[in-house]
Amino acid sequence: MSGTIGSFLPMVRKIRINFRFRLDSPILKVGSPLKEQAVSPVIGIMLMLIITVILAAIISGYVGGMSETKSKPPQLVLQTEAWKSSSELINVSMSVISAGDGIPTRDLKIITSWKSVSNSGGNITIPGSLYPQGRIPSKNGLPEIEDFGNYTLFGGTNMFINTSAGDQVFFGTSPDNIDKDTILTIKIVHVPSQATIYSQELILGDNS
Question: Archaeal Type IV pilin N-terminal domain spans which residues (predicted)?
Answer without folding.
Answer: 37-114
